[in-house]
Structure formats: structure tokens, C-alpha cells
């Protein structure tokens, strides 16, 4: 494949950029919306280039672990991280649920002021992926919006509370 598939999610939030940024970077708030409708446990959140976000999503009798390594941080403007599946010891592994899932996704989130609102753009792109991983990602892209959308609905609630 010459061009990598890219998932793009655009959302406008009815809150100032500093509060939207906080919803993405305060581990207590992030755990409330990331992985909607399941229990999310953030084991580590070191918001600096090279720092890690270690995340566990608990689903009934199992957990899904992931490690995000921050690559770029521009406060209230941009977050960039490498997103990888991990085992319970935080070693990066192939996804146990989807063996052909990309081992690393490049995630970029930008925050743009729009008057009293904030526009957020999230992009996901396979990083250093095999052809099988690229195909798996491309085949799953149609379903990404519903998961992010459910999380964004919870962010709306959090932002209403913060502005309450």
C-alpha cells in the first residue's frame, strides 16, 4: 500500500480549550471517558515527551492493556503518542484480540480554539506496520467512530460539570 489508511475524528466541544485539554490530560477525568462503558484504570500517566500512559480497560473476566508513549506535547494545542497493546507487565505485544492489529498506532490530537468552543481533531495511523496490519486497521476503521463518539459524549458531561 502506498498511502497509509488514516482515521480522522473531528469534534467540537462547548467549552474553552483549557478545559478540553484537561479532560484529555487529567488522569482522573481521562479514566472516566476513555473506554466508555467499561472500567478504565490508568496505572501511570507521565505527560512529557518519552513519558508513558499505561492503561487497563477491564471487561468482565479480562483486561485489555495498552501503553501510550508520548512523543510530542504542546500544552492546550497538541498531543502525539505511540499507542501499543501490552501484556499485564507492560511489555508491548501483538493485540491478543486481533493478532493482525498494528503493533503501534501514531495518534495525534489537536485542540483549536473556536470562540468559546474547542475543536478537537484526532488522527490514528498505523506506524511501521506490516501489510497485514495495515489491512486489518483499514478494515476496522468504519467502527472507530462509535467508540470515540461514546467517549466524547462523556467528555461533554464532564465539561458541563467543570463549567457548572
Structural class: alpha+beta
Mean pLDDT level: 94
CATH architectural designation:
2-Layer Sandwich
CATH superfamily: START domain
Query: What does the overall shape look like?
Result: globular
Descriptive notes:
- This protein has helices spanning 17-25, 27-33, 131-140, 144-163, and strands spanning 7-13, 39-45, 52-59, 62-74, 78-86, 105-114, 117-126.
- With 164 residues, it is an alpha+beta fold.
- The chain has a single domain (7-163), classed as 2-Layer Sandwich (Alpha-D-Glucose-1,6-Bisphosphate, Chain A, domain 4), CATH 3.30.530.
- Strands 1-7-6-5-4-3-2 form a 7-stranded antiparallel beta sheet.
- A hairpin with a 3-residue loop joins strand 4 and strand 5.
- The longest helix is centred in the C-terminal third of the chain and has 20 residues, at 144-163.
List the defining traits of the structure above.
7-stranded antiparallel β-sheet; Alpha-D-Glucose-1,6-Bisphosphate, Chain A, domain 4; globular; 164 residues; alpha+beta; 4 helices; single chain
SSE topology:
Elements: E1 7-13, H1 17-25, H2 27-33, E2 39-45, E3 52-59, E4 62-74, E5 78-86, E6 105-114, E7 117-126, H3 131-140, H4 144-163
Antiparallel strand pairs: 1-7, 2-3, 3-4, 4-5, 5-6, 6-7
Could you write a compact summary of the structure shown?
The chain has 164 residues and is an alpha+beta fold. It has helices at residues 17-25, 27-33, 131-140, 144-163, and strands spanning 7-13, 39-45, 52-59, 62-74, 78-86, 105-114, 117-126.
